[in-house]
Amino acid sequence: MLEKFCTWMFRWRKVLIPAVLVMTIIYPRMISNAYTMRITIVAMMYASLVISLNLITGMLGQMSFGHAAFWGLGSYTAAILSTRLGWGSEITFPAAIVVSGLFGALLGLPVLKLKGYYFTIVTMVFNEIIRVILFNWMSLTNGPLGILRIPRPSFFGFQIRSQMAFFYLALIILIITILVVSNITNSRVGYAILAIRDDEIAAASNGINVFRYKVTTFVVASSLAGLAGAFYAQYTNYIDPNAFSGLQSNEMIVMVIFGGLGNIFGSIFAAIVLSILPEVLRTFAMYRQIIYGILLVLMMLIRPQGLFGDIRFKYLGQRAGLYNGKTPAKPA
Predict the structure, then answer these.
(1) Count of structural domains within the chain
(2) Does 159 map to a domain?
(3) What is the DSSP annotation of 151-195?
(4) Tell me, what DSSP letter sits at residue 328?
(5) Contact 96, 229 (CB under 8 A)
(6) Which of 132, 266, 289, 324 has the highest local Cβ count within 10 Å?
(7) How many Cβ atoms sit within 10 Å of the Cβ of residue 247?
(8) Coil, strand, or helix at residue 263?
(9) Ordered DSSP codes for 274-300
(10) Does residue 5 lie within any of the structural domains?
(11) Does 22 fall in a domain?
């Protein structure tokens, strides 16, 4: 049933995509509740984070539990540069991307030679190391007190203040993340990454530089997490080390698995649903985490591959005769 729905959605994509874009653009003008807008903006930020993590976990096949560390590095980079040096977002956002990407390279170069549980354990330890550093480097990060009064994002003198402007900024970041990941996925680089995920030895025997592609993928995903972190810091006006603990990394992994490994649409859907669901269950304050956990367990029992884990839109398009606008030839 889900595959039929996705086939229908792909068949009508030329109508659905513009309609979704129009609805997304006018959405802030339809919502007057500030709380609802804030949840929506945070959900969009999580969608960017989950898509970037899916590049590592779904595409590359490496289970990383340290993605929140790169998110935090981007957040602290933007916060420190904006509060201490007064730099605008046209500098702090690229700086957050560079710093997170640099740490991604520093971690990836030695660690991506590991496989399986060893890699996962190292990423968990890295996340905790970063959190401890943020807690104890008082002169730079202000320790457990966090960084207060972070300026709102400003680009070349134009400062973003309204929730509507933040919504569009989050949307731009999400679109950038989608474009970067989808371009990688649908390129020769993406096919090489998938080959590495399926069989490293076979990929290497066919001339693919396995280690280089692994490091490149890890750095790109880390940089995209840093971009989301810069937005988060200047949107919330306050950050502290607890916001980037292993618990947040675990939540991102859950969203990746829930939506489906290697599926961008699934990542967006899961990030939005699992960001909003705890808020919807807030009226059941004593039981909402139990309900949330039960729903996830049921989901894993019913569809362990995730909602869209086994849905390949390119294949659906080919089967429907719509891929690249070509109609399959009729049998003689």
Answers:
(1) 1
(2) yes
(3) PPPEETTEEP-SHHHHHHHHHHHHHHHHHHHHHHHTSHHHHHHHH
(4) P
(5) yes
(6) 266
(7) 12
(8) coil
(9) HHHHHHHGGGGTTTHHHHHHHHHHHHH
(10) no
(11) no
